[in-house]
Input
Amino acid sequence: MSRLKLSLACGFYDRTDALRTGDVKVDGIDIDFILISNPREIFDRMGGKQEFDVSEFSSSEYISRLGRGDRSFVAIPVFPSRVFRHGYIYINRKAGIREPKDIAGKRVGVPVYTMTAAVWIRGHLMHQYGVDLSGCRWLEGAINHAGSHGEPSAPPLLKPIEVERDPQGRSLSELLAQGEIDVIMGTQHPIPHPEIAPLFPDARAVERAFAKTTRIFPMMHLVVIRRDVYERDRSVADRLYKGFVDAKNLALSRLKRGHPLMLPWLHQDVHELDEVFGGDPYPCGIEANRPSLDALMQYMVEQNFIARPIPFEDVFVPVDKLLR
Output
């Protein structure tokens, strides 16, 4: 039997790189690994034109599509990108924000209101800090360059939110520095400026405590397969899942064996993996990620992305060890 050839679009991550280099093989599948550093480009090309057989994809966009009956893709419970987001909330020093609750009623900049990072940040602020976001004014734009942040094709919210854009196309960093918005909630740190400060000066300590208390490590992206590819041979989901797991395990073992990264205190961070994450911060499957998945689903219902929670067995197709 001839081997299947599949294109896979993904960013550069240590946990997936063995699939790019060929150090990890996928049973019966030749992977054409298309490395794209900008995730938004991957999402726009996959969501808009389905350009790839398999790709990294926005978690919130996939779940939103599924909630509206869009069956263009199937997903496997692999999460290439996970990021704590407390450290990505920045304020203007003159906006009168001394604690999270002060964000209520403020002007807030966000790259894309429906992006997964923004879902998580709003959820954190509401649930951890009791922030009332109902009176906030929202403005979309790129954080550190002029114009918009990609061309997302996510479906509209069930309850529309009024979102503005700067008519001059200025970056969110510029708007925040000038005091035309009060807060940025995003995926990048803004350009340094005397008038800009993080909401949480010691964000790592806040995020570490959050992880230990909740067992949540926010997933930004998951992996989707075009449905036509999956329906031709459903075993591709199981084989790809195993490939991603093997690649992640190889990266983790390399990390723990030596010092592959230019981080002088890497050994301390590796020890912290055991204490905070039980040794593996990037587990695959549903059960190992249930606290994070439960939180994301709850936030998406509360923020009017979907009408009701979708069972995870409907979000992800069956793969090896999925339900353990």
Observations:
- The mean pLDDT is 95.
